[in-house]
Write a structure and sequence with these properties.
Elements (H helix, E strand, L loop, with lengths): L1 E3 L5 E4 L3 H11 L16 E4 L5 E4 L6 E2 L4 H10 L3 E3 L2 E8 L11 E8 L15 H24 L14 H7 L4 H16 L3 H5 L3 H11 L4 E4 L4 H8 L3 E2 L3 E9 L2 E8 L5 E6 L1 E4 L3 H7 L12 E9 L9 H7 L10 E7 L4 E6 L5 E4 L10 E10 L3 H11 L20 E3 L11 H14 L9
Parallel strand pairs: 2-14, 7-16, 14-20
Antiparallel strand pairs: 1-2, 1-10, 3-4, 5-9, 6-9, 7-8, 11-12, 12-13, 15-18, 15-19, 16-17, 17-18
Helix pairs in contact: 1-12, 2-12, 3-7, 4-7
The chain binds flavin-adenine dinucleotide.
Length: about 450
């Protein structure tokens, strides 16, 4: 938890990207729970094969032009260096996962390079020239189709009689082939959303279509040296209460009372502020802020496990092809490999970090426990047409409330605010953190130096 002393007192609950950027904005108004900050708390430093130390960001927090305009402008303002990052994505499926006692057979069907930077694509081991060429041609056509649709065929929006179109319905409407959806599109999009395939099919189609259209052909970037650089810039001078978890936020008269519990001593404390900004996931908001307890019940969250390990034996065999065929450009970091390995319901992501460790997120196959060096669990907020509707009602003053309660709480009521990657009508990514922080700044009439 961070508090910002200024002419008005403001407490911010949560020190992820949204909490830190909001704290920075408020503290630098020109007119006026953890042992560490959490933005970088899951990341770690490892030695690479040459013995040099390298920072491994957990989660990766890559971003792309087109979608992350506010994030890029903020990084540029702070002089945070970021660089283009290419990726190689081998797509594999587990073929006999359910047969007890047998080692699962992994079949790699295609090796995609981000923005087709590697052309022609690498041919997976065991794939004949004919199957490889047919697969490449088929994927090229399907991909061009979904990109064209994302630009020209808009998803159906919600109205008073029906919810917004889901991606499942949109894919059927544009006749996107099932084989492509199941084996390629859901795996790659679930790398962006880290959720099982069925949950992704239930996302509002507009989220995926909008992300697809905005990022098509645009490069990916990562922060050079890791997001600790961002954390350092944003947190300078903040008064942070480490190891304190907010347990209740409530209005007391014209003020807002924040009550917290110290994780180490177990003691509780509370203080009155002019404003409290909650920069936490919706499940936490429900627990600490009673007025949203029932409304936020429709916003699903899931726990996403990530393992940093050195179990190289579980990497698919296609790696021999990738190792031999990968092309690096002078002056740019080598392309990073992210293996997408799917079963019938979900995809695991195995990122071979250049530092020599492997990060497996949402594993569907076992990892040798003796080779695991670090485990983290993240909370991911998912989207559905219903959660989209509730989010709009809370954050968009123009949307009429349908909760049947005219006193439905809206962002800013009683000087209590919400920011975070889920606090906007779009994909739950870092851009949502900045967009929601900027909205609070605007409402509080605070000028943000990098905002347009
Ligand atoms: C595996 C994975 C990979 C991802 N990759 C990307 C990516 O490449 N690009 C991208 O844009 N996004 C990515 N995301 C999404 C992105 O990282 C998150 O959406 C974003 O970091 C959320 O930031 P936030 O500040 O809204 O919330 P959080 O980061 O969740 O921060 C909230 C913080 O509040 C703290 N907290 C919780 N309860 C309390 C309490 N009671 N009191 C005080 N503090 C509390 C928590 O410790 C937490 O750290 C990824 C997410 C995951 C899980």
């Amino acid at each position: 938890m961070a508090s910002v002393e200024s002419r008005q007192s403001v407490a911010i609950v949560g020190t992820g990207m949204a909490g830190l950027i909001t704290a920075w904005i408020i503290r630098n108004d020109s007119r006026a729970s953890k042992k560490t900050l959490s933005l970088d708390s899951a990341s770690l430093t490892v030695s690479n094969l040459a013995g040099d130390k390298q920072r491994v960001d957990l989660p990766m927090r890559a971003f792309a032009s087109g979608f992350y305009d506010n994030l890029k402008r903020m990084y540029d303002y702070f002089g945070i260096e970021y660089g283009k990052q290419k990726f190689i994505f081998p797509f594999s499926t587990v073929e006999n996962e359910t047969e007890p006692g047998r080692r699962p057979k992994i079949h790699t069907s295609f090796i995609h390079s981000s923005h087709t930077h590697q052309f022609p694509p690498l041919r997976p081991q065991g794939s004949t020239w004919l199957t490889w060429l047919t697969e490449a041609l088929y994927l090229g056509i399907c991909y061009l189709w979904i990109v064209s649709c994302s630009i020209f065929i808009k998803p159906i929006e919600a109205n008073s009689s029906r919810p917004s179109e889901t991606f499942r319905q949109y894919a059927a409407r544009i006749r996107l082939p099932q084989y492509f959806v199941k084996n390629y599109y859901l795996p790659i999009m679930s790398a962006v959303t880290t959720c099982p395939h069925n949950a992704l099919l239930d996302f509002p189609a507009i989220d995926i279509v909008d992300y697809q259209a905005k990022t098509f052909g645009k490069p990916h970037y990562t922060v050079i040296g890791g997001v600790s650089k961002v954390q350092d810039k944003l947190s300078k001078g903040l008064n942070v209460h480490y190891s304190s978890a907010a347990i209740r936020v409530e209005n007391v008269g014209a003020k807002v009372q924040l009550t917290w519990k110290n994780d180490i001593t177990g003691s509780t404390g509370s203080k009155l502020f002019d404003h409290v900004i909650m920069a936490v996931t919706p499940d936490v908001v429900r627990a600490i802020f009673p007025p949203l307890r029932s409304a936020l019940a429709v916003i699903p969250t899931s726990t996403v496990p990530a393992y940093v390990h050195r179990d190289f034996d579980r990497l698919p065999k296609c790696n021999q092809v990738v190792n031999g065929g990968i092309r690096s450009e002078p002056g740019l970091p080598s392309p990073e490999r992210i293996h997408l390995c799917s079963n019938s319901s979900s995809t695991e992501f195995t990122h071979e970090h250049l530092s020599s460790v492997i990060i497996t997120t949402s594993p569907i196959l076992p990892i040798d426990p003796s080779k695991i060096e670090h485990t983290v669990f993240f909370t991911r907020t998912l989207r559905t047409p219903l959660s989209q509707k509730v989010t709009k009602e809370i954050f968009d003053p123009k949307t009429s409330s349908d909760f049947g309660d005219s006193k439905q709480w809206r962002n800013g009521d009683g000087n209590i605010w919400l920011v975070g990657s889920w606090c906007w009508d779009g994909m739950v990514l870092l851009e949502g953190c900045i967009a929601s922080a900027l909205r609070v700044a605007e409402e509080l009439d605070i000028e943000v130096p990098w905002a347009l």
